[in-house]
Amino acid sequence: MNDLLATTAGEADPRSRSQTAAGQPLLRIDAVVKKFDGFRAVDSLSLDIHAGEFFALLGPSGCGKTTLLRMLAGFEMPDQGRILLDGKDIAQVPPHQRPLNMMFQNYALFPHLNVRDNIAFGLKRARLPAGEIDARVTEMIALVRLDGLEKRKPDQLSGGQRQRVALARSLARRPQLLLLDEPLAALDKKLRESTQAELIELQRRLGLTFIIVTHDQEEAMSLAARIGVMEAGRLEQVATPRELYETPRSRWVAEFVGDINLFEGKLDAAETSRLTIPPRLAVATRDAGMIYIAEPRQRPVKETLCVAIRPEKIKLSRRAPAGDDSHALNRLEGAVIDVSYLGGTTSYKVKLDSGAMLRSSMANTARLDFSAYSAGQRVVAWFSPEDCLVLEQ
Amino acid sequence: MSSRSLFTRPARLAAVAPYLWMVLFFLVPFLFVLKISLSQTAIAQPPYAPVFDLSAGWEAARAALDALSLDNFKLLVSDDLYLVSYLRSLLVAAVSTSILLLIGYPIAYGMARLSSRAQAIAMMLVIVPFWTSLLIRIYAWINILQHDGLLNQILLALHVVSQPVVWLSTDWAMYLGIVYSYLPFMILPLFSTLAKMDLALLEAAGDLGASPRQAFWLVTFPLSLPGVAAGALLCFIPIIGEFVIPDLLAGSNALMIGQTLWLEFFNNKDWPVASAVAVILLLLLLAPLLLYDRLQRNQLERA
Questions:
Q1: Is residue B112 within 8 Å of residue B197, measured between CB atoms?
Q2: What whole-number distance in Å separates Cα of residue B282 and Cα of residue B262?
Q3: What angle do CA A215, A167, A12 make, to 5 degrees?
Q4: Which of A291, A384, B282, B303 lies 20 to 30 Å from A119, alpha-carbon distance?
Q5: Which of A11, A30, A28, A29 shows the shortest CA–CA distance to A20?
Q6: Does B218 touch chain A (CB under 8 A)?
Q7: d(CA A184, CA A188)
Q8: What span, in angstroms and rounded, lies between the C-alpha atoms of A1 and A5?
Q9: CB contact, 8 Å: A111 with chain B?
Q10: Minimal CA–CA distance to A251: which of A264, A234, A233, A268?
Q11: Domains and CATH numbers, chain A
């Protein structure tokens, strides 16, 4: 494996290049705008990506993530803004002159070339000596474990094999930056999971910088160290998977990433001052009565706010827990109306007495669970103030 | 089980139909032609001998069979006229097909990159000449190319030439007519392969360091080869046997094989030699036809 990184011309080694500019990001996207017929597909977006990072662009279809990726690859030119790779503005450089490569969504393998020639395509364009091309192709084939399939044409390969050819082809030129456009979308679930692990392992081993575009939040979370959530051409939040899930910055992010219960309400100053255990805030919600929350780092400015609780943070029980349990400060009564058994967890839909709906998800920690609830059963839903999020609209 | 028998019987019948068609309308007439090519001319009705007369009995039929000979084919080999004619046909077909490819490819390529609305219009424009008879269109060219025709009038008015140029009855005029007439047959198969090409392949080529020109030669062109082959054969084969266009537009000093055949048949009234010419022509055309068939079969196997 060290072989792959030990290049003859040192400048082609992605690590040695990025090390020259310690602290400086490998890629800086600076106020980039892309318009299609007046519609701003990417709307003055800025983002820094550092060498060696595995970054995911996550968002619903049409959010502009693919357009952004295509601007990085050079298939679209930004209308405004700069794209700095290693300090050089590449925004207007044509694709074939950019020192980065892309793995295409449907792989875009050349159907008339066999596996070996597909992988060698980029190396031949770089006018490497034939011996070196041969050596590198053999290396790439070993890297993605395609030995014995060199002479096959793409239509004689399975989906998983094609994906690996595409990966090998995009890595063969040792790009400083690899762009991956929904690289696993065409694979079935089992294969996708094992391929995810391989991608992470490969990225770490080669010390490369990966930017992946996906609409699948689980994929983004399991692959990337940092995720940028995009919506309507803008980055809603850039954070680690945990931050994204546990402290979403906006209501939109909270709803897009995972399931969440949302209750709109107003800060109740009188009730807050009455509380004996600070720091707590009391929010009078429209649908679920008073909800006590831990005081956020920044006190909400607006009067109306939104309390958010992830379903797995809400426990259900038949009777209310003991009165002085501060973890169960919030108690909402209602009846189970729907039960979805999902194997590892069971998801309950509870209709609160106030009329609001609530989702709770509980881990099935025992094989025989006699305390499972069934539809129609009355329950108390309780959760800790620490698990509540305050989101401003 | 019932659904199987429901579908296979008509399917089998449908598969037989083209063979039946070929036997009735190609093989049987061809056997007639083959038989005539082995006969001798005669001043009679029909103008050749022997004639098989089934009512005359077995002995007469055997005598007729003995009278068949390869004399006409020997004549074709011994007289340069026919060889020159065949070679000219091959040359004209090869040159015309090359010109057609050079003109048709860029047009098909451009069409494939248009919006689907514009594609429909462009397709219409390519097909529209078919709405007029070929003969009328060739006569129109005669009008344009003749001594006091449109082309010479324009050239004289622009002072490009001081004397009318002889266009008509030259090879130039013939090539012009052939290329003009066959262009749709070249464009359509090329267009259909180019239009279904995945544009992501060109992006991938660019991403891997290929300039747009390299991407064309390394990706677009190789992938369009089935269309090139289809278009080339669709033009090459009928051009070899072309009669109308060379007869009306080319000079009379060199004949294509179609014209030679016509002369033998209508001027010399030599049906046997005309038939022998036709038999050799068919054998000549069989080679590219078989090639085309193999290409198509490869295509199907890959799909």
A1: yes
A2: 15
A3: 115
A4: B303
A5: A11
A6: yes
A7: 8
A8: 7
A9: yes
A10: A264
A11: 2-99+175-254 (3.40.50.300), 260-391 (2.40.50.100)
d(CA A287, CA A284): 9
Distance, in Å, from the CA atom of A388 to the CA atom of A310, rounded to the nearest integer, reads 8
Pairing of strands A177-181, A100-103: parallel
Half-sphere exposure of A252 (CA within 13 A, CB side): 13
| pLDDT tens-digit series, residues B134-163 | 999 999 999 999 988 999 999 999 988 888
Identify all chain B residues contacting A155, using CB atoms and an 8 Å cutoff. 302
Instruction: Compute the distance between CA of residue A56 and CA of residue A225 in angstroms, rounded to an integer.
Output: 8
Find chain B residues with C-beta within 8 A of A74's C-beta: 206-207
Q: Do B207 and A96 touch (CB under 8 A)?
A: yes
A154–chain B Cβ distance below 8 A for any pair: no
Q: Could you tell me which residues are beta bridge partners of residue A345?
A: A363
Q: What is the pTM of this model?
A: 0.80
Q: Which residues pair with A238 in a beta bridge?
A: A228
SS3 at position A334: strand
Query: Token pair 């077995």 is at which residue?
Result: B58
Q: Are strands A209-214 and A54-58 parallel, antiparallel or unpaired?
A: parallel
- Greatest Cα pair distance, chain A, in angstroms, is 80
DSSP 8-state class, residue B266: I
The answer to whether A121 contacts B207, with C-beta atoms less than 8 Å apart, is no
Residue owning tokens 């429209």: A286
User: 3-class DSSP state for residue A381?
Assistant: strand
Q: Which of A108, A112, A173 sits opposite B204 (nearest CB)?
A: A108
Closest CA to B122 of B105, B106, B108: B108
Domains and their CATH numbers in chain B: 33-69 (no CATH), 72-302 (1.10.3720.10)
**What is the Rg, in whole angstroms, of the alpha carbon atoms belonging to chain A?**
26
CA B102 to chain centre: 18
CB contact set of B224 (below 8 Å; sequence gap of 6+): B105, B190, B193, B194, B197
pLDDT tens by residue, B181-194: 999 999 999 999 99
Residue with tokens 């009328």: B136
Contact B209 A155 (CB under 8 A): no
Contact residues on chain A for B218, CB-CB shorter than 8 A? 121
What was the ipTM of the complex prediction?
0.81
> Above 80 in pLDDT, residue A268?
yes
- Per DSSP (E only), the strands in A64-176 are 80-85, 88-89, 100-103
